[in-house]
UniProtKB/TrEMBL annotation:
Annotated protein name in UniProt: Uncharacterized protein
Stretches for region Disordered: 1-23
Source superkingdom: Bacteria
Amino acid sequence: MPSSWSLPEPTLAAASEKPKLPPGCAAETKWDDLRALASHGRLGRVRLRSRSGGTLADAFAEIVPAAAHLPQGTVLDRVT
């Protein structure tokens, strides 16, 4: 992983029969697909990264300009 990457590591799924969730939250099935972190950094740079540290910006080019509309400093962790 590049040393310049300053985002947290993606969260990993864990099996649970009955997840304990705060009121107003929900859980969904985790399918084995693509895990991604998207960020709009404090300097205005948008990054889209895989769980293994590679860039996903070329594969999902439409997400990059959309993520630029997020508040600076925002990080999204998502399974696609």
